[in-house]
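Weekly modeling sync, notes
Attendees: AB, CL, MP (scribe)

Item 1: holo prediction request
CL wants a bound-state model with nicotinamide-adenine-dinucleotide before deciding which constructs to order. AB pointed out that an apo prediction alone won't tell us much about the pocket. Agreed to run with the ligand included and paste results into these notes for async review.

Input as submitted:
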Amino acid sequence: MTYLPVTSARPEPLRVGLIGAGWMGSFHAKSLAQRIPDASLAAIADPALESAQPLAAELGVAHVTADPGDLFADPEIDAVVIAAPARFHAQLAIAAARAGKHVFCEKPASLDLDEFARVEQAVGEGGIHWQVGFNRRYAADFLAARRDVADGVVGTPQLLRSLTRDPGTGSIRNADRVPHGTIFVETLIHDFDALNWFNSGAEPVSVYVAADALVEPELRGMGFIDTAVVTIRYENGAIAAAEANYSALYGYDVRGEVFGSRGMVQAGRATETAALRFGAKGLSAETPRLNIELFADAYTAELADFVGQVRAKRDGGEAPDHGVPLTPGLADARRALAVARACIESVESGEAVRVAAILGG
Ligand SMILES: NC(=O)c1ccc[n+]([C@@H]2O[C@H](COP(=O)([O-])OP(=O)(O)OC[C@H]3O[C@@H](n4cnc5c(N)ncnc54)[C@H](O)[C@@H]3O)[C@@H](O)[C@H]2O)c1
């Protein structure tokens, strides 16, 4: 048998290092190693080597380290995916940018705006592509809704809605150690971005929060919040509601909606598929239980976009064009974080809070 020689027309894959090999990092690792042909997973860094080593072994990754600094110093690495806990995101992104590595950073980009300003500065000075993990934008139904808004199908947005109900058991593990404001900065930040993106071009003006500990009422006195409704007023007059709860016993429920002068568009549904079971006792359906089930395609698409954006920047080619603004960058991360920080102030004061005041305006 004689095989013919083949000259590959495909450019070298983007060599990506993973920082943080936990729940989310493991999914991203598999996307980079197996689902995105234009990328390769070159190394994994995690101080918990007991997480990093088995993942590297499973995916055939040759380099593992406890120190993310090793990835920044490695000339063979083009970009990093940061999936460490939120409190480390900003410092890791700054170090990566200073080393000239492109950054995909899981949400939230930072826990506070002053720290985030340092990220923005480092990204600007490093000349790198920086992207944040607002994956909902990449879910097919959310993207279709955004395209409808852009095409004028719903007319002028008047009411917007976004909700996140995390699956739970009715009791949150280590709830007493969850930092104050987590529901806004880590959970609802997805909803704030979805709303800002749906109502694109209009700045959020003020927020008002009603929040409580209804899942873990005994932690109310410590300031723990597991249930919140946020009202956001936008400069174009639109009013939005975002809500979250940490214990939806029926599954992982994420939805969005834009209601306007010409109609309404909805994204997301509580059932896992469109299949409905009809029986003697009525209707039933499966519901998704895990984020990596509900958003498997979106998580992969956001990283594929990141890889495409970096390659375009590095190789001078065409950046991916999605028809509507999609790739979430520094301004999107700042806007969503400002809303989240304003929510924390609203909880503390019991008053509506101007977002511009949070941004120092
Ligand atoms: N976009 C989404 O829908 C989504 C869903 C889940 C988690 N997340 C985000 O992903 C990030 C990680 O969450 P997770 O659920 O995977 O947490 P996790 O605890 O499962 O994993 C975090 C990993 O980071 C490692 N780590 C700790 N300090 C580190 C450091 N300084 N440098 C490198 N690695 C470090 C830990 O050892 C652990 O393996 C969080 O920011 C979270 O908000 C996003």
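Recorded for review: Residues 14-128 form a domain with the Rossmann fold fold (CATH 3.40.50.720).
Action items: CL to compare against the apo run; MP to circulate these notes.
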